[in-house]
């Protein structure tokens, strides 16, 4: 007994759908976030230390910002 195999997109007669990995929303770097806010990158690091800036996330050794969280933070500022 043999089982059908698929090798990817474009296989004629393939028996299963090709699944693509879910694309995660992109995150902003410190440089991207600083450009959006119009502040120096050093200010973002200081705000993070003082816990007063937009929410940030440590991904490995990198600091990243969720664009939606940054925009929401901006709207909450007086």
From TrEMBL:
Pfam families named among the record's database cross-references: HTH_17
SUPFAM superfamilies: Putative DNA-binding domain (SSF46955)
Stretch list, region Disordered: 1-23
Helix-turn-helix domain sequence ranges: 29-77
Organism domain of life: Bacteria
Residue stretches of biased makeup (Polar residues): 1-18
InterPro entries: DNA-bd_dom_put_sf (IPR009061), HTH_17 (IPR041657), WH-like_DNA-bd_sf (IPR036388)
Name of the molecule in the record: Helix-turn-helix domain-containing protein
Taxonomic source organism: Salinactinospora qingdaonensis
